[in-house]
UniProtKB/TrEMBL annotation:
Pfam families: PALP. NCBIfam families: PRK10717.1. This is Cysteine synthase A. Pathway: Amino-acid biosynthesis. Transmembrane segments: none annotated. InterPro entries: Cys_Synth/Cystath_Beta-Synth, P-phosphate_BS, Ser/Thr_deHydtase_PyrdxlP-BS, TrpB-like_PALP, TrpB-like_PALP_sf. It comes from the Bacteria. One of its GO terms (molecular function) is transferase activity, transferring alkyl or aryl (other than methyl) groups. Its cofactor is pyridoxal 5'-phosphate. CDD domains: CBS_like (cd01561). Residues 9-300 form the Tryptophan synthase beta chain-like PALP domain.
Amino acid sequence: MHVRNGLVEAIGHTPLIRLEGPSKATGCAILGKAEFLNPGGSIKDRAALAMIRAAQAAGTLPPGTPIVEGTAGNTGIGLALLGNALGYPVRIVMPETQSREKQDALRLCGADLRLVKAVPYRDPGNYVHVARRLAEAEGGLWVNQFDNTANRDGHRDTTGAEILRQSGGRLDAFTCAVGTGGTLAGVGLALKAHDPDIRVVLADPMGSALYAWHTTGELKSEGSSITEGIGQGRITANLEGAPIDGAVRIDDAEALRVLFDLIRHDGLVLGGSSGINVAAAMRVARDLGPGHTVVTVLCDGGARYQSKLYNPEFLKARDLPVPDWL
Ligand code: PMP
């Protein structure tokens, strides 16, 4: 018998799943780290826990201190659950463009949710700055996931270490999209420490500036994406010095086709960033040729986006592919 004590110990230890459809299509082993199985439903439970633990260790989170964060939703859900289990009130600032399902999940957890207009980072009304000012005004802890490197350290020590253990360290490449960069940088650092020849590839949605940054050195974006929680216009502290060997850009139509196939052929209902990640893994696998192993991350589940990614009206209005069974 193996019992995990409470929410904290239930985070992480997720399976590494061989994705049969993508593996068959590419002749490679495409392996997905099943982060949608975390208690809060996403990869961000790990970052939330790592950042809370780091603040406790630094003495900046005495019992009862409000935890304040700006988030696309998933970090907020992780923080709200942990706040409940560990005794901290949680205040979340989120752009109003994020899915209704994530807003509902945050309210269900009892988070104090404030929705703000979606404006660029340079605007003082951006959700990140609103969260910082709210924390200052209330004597709360601003988690600051983008520039708090406890996020990346947590992924290096848990997500990265688990991938190495579960794959026996035998992998050729890793693909990952970036929101804060914590996952890509943390896992990348763990993989490179084990074997510098493992290729770390950035998977970028349209509308993000990182593909251009990696390929031309200039932070520049074009287009847009319906995916949530990923895409970045600046080099966050978590991304600073991340080991990145290559970058691929994936548009929404390609990501959606991969997501629809994963539902019908693999039995996995996943969120948009997982579609970007798996599509990128398949591109890298085709470049490497048959017989290689490519690992990626299944960041969250599709139920969180049913009103968007899996809503025929939403897709049709944007000229995106609609699955024939919906
Ligand atoms: N996918 C989803 C669904 C997310 O919510 C996030 C985090 N915003 C990411 C991917 C990106 O992860 P990271 O912040 O570690 O770059």
